Amino acid sequence: MSLPSAPSRAETPIAFIASMAQAYAQRGMDPTEALQKAQIAPDLLSQPQARVTALQMEWMSEAAMRELDDEALGWFRRRLPWGSYGMLVRASLTAPTLGLALARWCRHHNLLTDDIRLTLSTSNGLAHIELHEAHDLKDLREFCTVSVLRNALGVACWLTDSRIPLTATQLHFSPPPHADSYRVLFDGPSQFDAPHSQLSFDAGYLQLPIRRDEAALQRMLQRALLLTVRPYRRDRLLVEKVRQTLANQPEQSRNAEDLAAWLNLSPRTLHRQLKEEGASLQQLKDSVRRDTAVDLLLRTQRPIKQIAADVGFQNEKSFMRAFKVWTGTTSEAFRQGR
């Protein structure tokens, strides 16, 4: 069955396709069939300024990974057999927050290969996914670095259903002939000739909860390469900022106007962006009130009337009705059943 025509917008450097062809050559194999599947003319490999589409990159990568049985596409001294990166995601799926999931993902990746070392760090309000080379990756350095970092970012976005914008990208190699493509490959400014490679983004994203399960993973794995070749589409950081403000700054979030001013937004923008992210201010208020009430019921012996006031209810009866709706049980029964 023939593949549909690839879209006309071509922005991925042919150098990455050439790197895959190099992996074939290292194994004494012929990339011609994979190139045909991806609708890439072989003579493009000798044209440094040529570009392919994201879809062609996806087709070529999948064909090469399967034929080479190496999801690392020749970057490392030891192959990463088909399914290796899916295994990494599965191991991170049960983490409660993105920060723990990414730390786990980096740690487990380091068990698969000792050619590079991945770490997660934070500084000055930013999170950094760092890539350190254990030895010189030479001609495969750029393709390896871009692929691993974009995959890590794609996994982070998918796990939290958020489009995580980058504040900066640092790269441990000189500007390539196709350096202009990096404005598409990574958000924000890219710095070449850095001491090591890393992606940086707002550390607030590390507090996002993991929103995926095994069923979602199985669906994702059917086209897992999308996480690497295309930017993710969602951004839920505002939801988490609102949630944190409601919990930690109640005096700044008495109403939408106060909350919007605290977040440097207009009330209209606040409501619109929350709606775009699939949430409403009232839903978030109820969620924070519920979580706070549950914590106080389980952790303290405060009277119900005091807890009702602590979470923003004017009287005990209103709180008890709301708690029954939230949990399906009364606040007294919930405390006694802990």
Task: Outline the structure in words.
The chain is of the alpha+beta class and 338 residues long. The chain has three domains: 12-68, no CATH class; 84-229, no CATH class; 237-336, Arc Repressor Mutant, subunit A, CATH 1.10.10. The protein is built from 16 helices and seven strands. The strands form two sheets. The protein has a five-stranded mixed β-sheet with strand order 3-4-7-5-6, covered by helices on one side. Strands 1-2 form a two-stranded antiparallel sheet. Helix 11 packs across helix 12 (267-276). The longest helix has 20 residues, at 141-160. The chain starts with 11 loop residues before the first strand and ends with a helix.
Strand and helix map with partners:
Blueprint: E1 12-13, H1 14-26, H2 32-37, E2 51-52, H3 54-68, H4 84-92, H5 98-112, E3 116-123, E4 126-133, H6 141-160, E5 166-170, H7 182-185, E6 190-191, E7 197-202, H8 214-221, H9 226-229, H10 237-248, H11 256-262, H12 267-276, H13 281-299, H14 304-310, H15 316-327, H16 331-336
Parallel strand pairs: 5-6
Antiparallel strand pairs: 1-2, 3-4, 4-7, 5-7
